[in-house]
């Protein structure tokens, strides 16, 4: 049958061999079951909570575009369904006319059940996006109509299910996080963490703005927050995109930990200040000891480079006084980072003071080691009955004078000790079989 205007006509396609009665009855039963299934699905889609929300929401972005297309598809679906139901009704009327249908009845049934006998008038709203180039009507077989309805239904349901999944997941989570944010802001305010005064206060403001914006966008454009499942063709296959929510949640957790650290400072600030004063006091005493030891080394040790000793850490003392002021005026947000840095620097200062003392007293340690070595060899010689050897006595006295006189030249004293050691070793070496000493004569 032709169609007015320049649109093409659709001639009926041969339905194939005429069906017998049993084939017609089986086809009617199958198509009837499909009719019921399609009707149930369409009614479920009509009553779907996601569809009702989409109809009542002020949509934007990709959701607005896809829902407009889905609404057209749903309207077209009902038109297809009515045409399908009408064709099925005609087939049932033909079959019900006679208990044993004749050839004409079976031919008519075959034409309805297998031929492209279903004409669907298109509304302009069907749109090229759904059906290709615009047509005033189309002819389908019942099988083709079912396929077309399944496709439109799947695409429409995908939009509805995806939007409903995002709305079911994200707004409630955002609201819970916003409630946690409000509690954290109240706690932050109580310890002086405010925007413009502490980085954590600025972070809280940024998180607040992000959650507010995110909720508005999720409500108006839920499909912008939908990640389709890889390789999934089922309607609604995928999951909500929670990346922005997750970032905000992590940022809030970081701020919360920082606020807890500030609270911990409020609880143990005095103890930490006492420990800081103790560490700096030990550093001062160690530096004073190093300065005193340096004077002793310069007086007692000759020809030795003695490093200078720095003065007390006045900058740390000033910052410690500032920390005490912060505690006195309950400025916990300022006290927290200051105490952290002071504790690190105070320990470093004590370590430097100890290293300075060790460096300054190194010459005295060398002298003590040489004295101990000299006396140890003298005792060893005495155990072997050689203490009265004139060479040993002479070399021992020379080394002892150098080590116990001030100022002591460590390099000369070390050579004197080595000469005494060598003489003692020569005497203690067993004689070889030829009767000569192992080390030769000592001059």
Task: Quickly describe the structure.
The protein is mainly alpha-helical and 443 residues long. The chain is 71% helix and 4% strand.
Question: How would you explain this protein's 3D organization?
Answer:
- This protein has 443 residues and is mostly helical.
- α3 runs antiparallel to α6 (142-190), α7 (199-220) packs antiparallel against α8 (243-300) and α12 packs antiparallel against α13 (410-428).
- The protein has helices spanning 21-47, 49-56, 61-97, 103-114, 128-131, 142-190, 199-220, 243-300, 314-328, 332-360, 362-383, 390-403, 410-428, and strands spanning 118-121, 137-140, 226-228, 238-240, 301-302, 408-409.
- The protein contains 13 helices and six strands.
- It folds into four domains: 21-159; 164-228 and 237-264; 266-360; 364-428.
Radius of gyration: 49 Å
Shape: elongated
In terms of DSSP E residues, the strand content is under 5%
What are the low-pLDDT stretches, counting only 5+ consecutive residues below 50? Answer: 1-12, 124-131, 435-443
Helix-strand pattern: HHHHEHEHHEEHEHHHHEH
Which sequence of strands runs across the widest sheet?
1-2
Number of helices: 13
Helix content: over 70%
Q: What structural class do the secondary elements suggest? A: mainly alpha
- Estimate the mean pLDDT confidence: 81
Q: Terminal Cα separation, in Å?
A: 140 Å
Count of distinct structural domains: 4
**How does the major sheet shape up?**
2 strands, antiparallel
Q: Report the count of strand segments.
A: 6
């Amino acid at each position: 049958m032709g169609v007015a205007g320049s649109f093409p006509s659709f001639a009926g396609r041969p339905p194939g061999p005429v069906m017998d009665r049993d084939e017609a009855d089986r086809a009617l039963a199958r198509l009837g079951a499909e009719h019921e299934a399609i009707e149930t699905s369409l009614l479920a889609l009509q009553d779907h909570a996601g569809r009702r929300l989409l109809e009542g929401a002020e949509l934007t972005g990709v959701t607005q575009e896809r829902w407009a297309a889905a609404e057209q598809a749903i309207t077209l679906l009902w038109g297809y369904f009515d045409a399908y139901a009408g064709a099925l009704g005609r087939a049932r009327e033909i079959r019900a006319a006679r208990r044993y249908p004749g050839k004409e009845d079976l031919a008519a049934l075959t034409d309805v059940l297998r031929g492209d006998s279903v004409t669907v008038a298109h509304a302009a709203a069907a749109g090229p996006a759904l059906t290709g180039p615009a047509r005033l009507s189309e002819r389908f077989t019942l099988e083709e109509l079912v396929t077309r309805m399944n496709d439109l239904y799947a695409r429409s349901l995908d939009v509805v299910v995806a939007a409903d999944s995002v709305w079911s997941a994200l707004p409630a989570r955002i609201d819970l996080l916003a409630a946690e944010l409000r509690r954290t802001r109240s706690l932050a305010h109580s310890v002086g963490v405010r925007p413009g005064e502490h980085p954590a206060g600025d972070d809280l403001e940024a998180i607040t703005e992000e959650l507010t914006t995110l909720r508005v966008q999720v409500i108006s454009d839920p499909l912008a927050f939908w990640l389709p499942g890889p390789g999934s063709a089922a309607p609604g296959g995928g999951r909500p995109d929670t990346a922005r929510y997750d970032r905000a949640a992590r940022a809030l957790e970081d701020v919360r930990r920082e606020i807890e650290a500030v609270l911990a400072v409020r609880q143990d600030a005095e103890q930490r200040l006492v420990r800081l004063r103790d560490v700096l006091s030990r550093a001062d005493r160690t530096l004073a000891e190093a300065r005193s030891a340096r004077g002793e080394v310069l007086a007692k040790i000759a020809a030795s480079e003695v490093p200078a000793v720095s003065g007390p850490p006045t900058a740390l003392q000033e910052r410690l006084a500032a920390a005490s002021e912060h505690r006195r005026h309950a400025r916990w947000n300022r006290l927290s980072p200051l105490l952290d840095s002071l504790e690190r620097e105070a320990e470093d200062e004590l370590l430097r003071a100890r290293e300075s003392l060790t460096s300054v007293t190194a010459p005295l340690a060398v002298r003590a080691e040489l004295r101990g070595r000299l006396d140890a060899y003298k005792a060893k010689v005495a155990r072997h009955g050689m203490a009265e050897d004139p060479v040993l006595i002479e070399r021992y006295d020379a080394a002892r004078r150098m080590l116990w006189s001030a100022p002591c030249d460590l390099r000369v004293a070390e050579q004197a000790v080595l000469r005494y050691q060598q003489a003692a070793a020569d005497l203690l070496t067993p004689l070889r079989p030829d009767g000569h000493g192992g080390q030769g004569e000592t001059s």
